[in-house]
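Sequence dictates fold. Next comes a concrete instance:
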Amino acid sequence: MAMDALLTHKLRAGLTLLGVLVGVFSIILVMTAMRAMKNNIEKELGTLGSKTFVMQRWPGAFFGGPEGFMKFFRRKDISHAQALAFKRKATFAPYVGLQCQVAGGLEIVSRYAKTPPNVQVMAGTPGAFQANNWTIMEGRALLDSDVDSARDVCLLNNVIARTLFPFGSPIGQRIRVASINYTVVGIFERAASSDTSGIVVMPLTTGLNRYGRRRDLSILVQVDEPEAFNDTVEQARGLLRSIRKVPPGAEDDFEILTSDSMIAQFQKVTFAVRTGLAIVSSIALIAAGVGIMNIMLVSVTERTREIGVRRAIGAKKRNIMAQFIMEAIVLCEIGGVLGIALGMGGANALAIYLLKLPPAFPVDWAIIGLLICSFIGIVFGSYPAYKAAHLDPIESLRYE
């Protein structure tokens, strides 16, 4: 009956549900796009895995004000000497790697091609490859002898390897980084990464000698079994506090990053953003609800004689109320379904073709959208339904 009543006035019903469609469309579009970005970022943050953590001076992400920034800025760097002392004393950890970024935005040149000026140059030890879950695709990883002798060797990630050597293997070939030649000894791939930027990794000592020894290092620690993870984190924290001479009871002057902690921090920030966007988008639904109430009041006036006839043949007030509330709900739900379909389609097209991200289908927000539509229908359809149910049957039959 609700569908028949809506189909009787197709244009009016279409214009009315358009407001609901726009409101739901805006919510689903934003939430689907954010879900696609969230899934991709969490995938990137999760590349450390459940058995690796990083100790460094700066937090993984910071969203505070200037006062909070100065807290991290005043910290001393994790120096090369401190990192070496940690590696030497951390007998409780199976794998310890040291790394730092020594340069960024460089152009790398081979005899065949050159890269855009966006390549990162990292310096590290052999343990960094194991801890970062970098897979050697060809050649070899760094060796302790490379670090001890500060050799002019390097590894390329698969992105930059394809750019510099499109016709063959780069192993044994020479590349030029900031006017200095290095021999390529291996190609690696970053686990589960969609990053298309180039990375060059050279021995830690080579990087420090070439780009300055006063660098802030990161310490990467990996355990064999996830069950030993928490104990290893606490032992590593105590050891680094001792090396950096942090007084007892004082706060750590370094950060310990895990995949779970970085994902939790990211989710905390995006939750606030999603909530704000949902509130803003809900304003359109409230406006649509006012329009639905207006149209339903007009419908009550037009169908006064119908209501009188229904009451005369035995329909109770609750039957009339149920009829008009159901019409409002159906009107909202049709707009909601169309808004969800258009919102998901538009957001995923944006994610795939513009942002180059895998699609996402936030079923939870689709269900929430439909529930909101039902709520809007009930709230804004209740007064017209109440008015219809309380019309006098005799006066309704006389209405022209």
Q: What stands out?
A: The chain has a mean pLDDT of 85. Residues 76-253 form one domain. The radius of gyration is 32 Å.
